[in-house]
Amino acid sequence: MAEFLSSAPQTGNTRKLLLIGLVVALALATGFALFYHHENHAPLQATATRVLTLPLHTVYGSNAKGGAAAMEAPETEDSIYVIPLLRVENTSDVPLFIKDVTSSVTLQDGRDNPGRRIGARDRERLQAMVPGITPLVKQTNLPPLDPEGQVAPHSTAEGYAIFLYTMPSTEWDKRKAADVRLDFYHQDAATIPLPK
To answer: The organism sits in which domain of life (predicted)?
Structure first.
């Protein structure tokens, strides 16, 4: 007990304790850095490599028969098909399962205009009804990126989606922003800005 109460420093033990404390502090700092990096590192990188568009101007009810109906202006609708080419790189150790693919455009006046995605069942009919879509789809040389698809761990998937916006192409050209959102079953969603 007298040794414990003595005021003479024991340099050998103090050095050992300092060395052990330093090793423990370094281990904790390394563990924290690895945890922080892992928790704040996105499991995917998603980009739009290109955007193809097909504007349409549709005229309904032509008045070729004459009479009173010929005096009325025909109804028209302007719309634009937008086909973004998307690249999704999965940097995680687990597959990414796609739940939904959506798109929205912010117009010049600040309003948001959601696009209507053309799903797998409607793509074939769309290509038959709107012949200009087929060359654009072939030009992508990619498969469609649809819900229920997946991106394997440590791999990259590329694909296209087709969205219909009911607006003139001039509004699309003057847009403030546009994006595609990929929702996943077990990971956070990814919002991909579309280039102008």
So the answer is: Bacteria
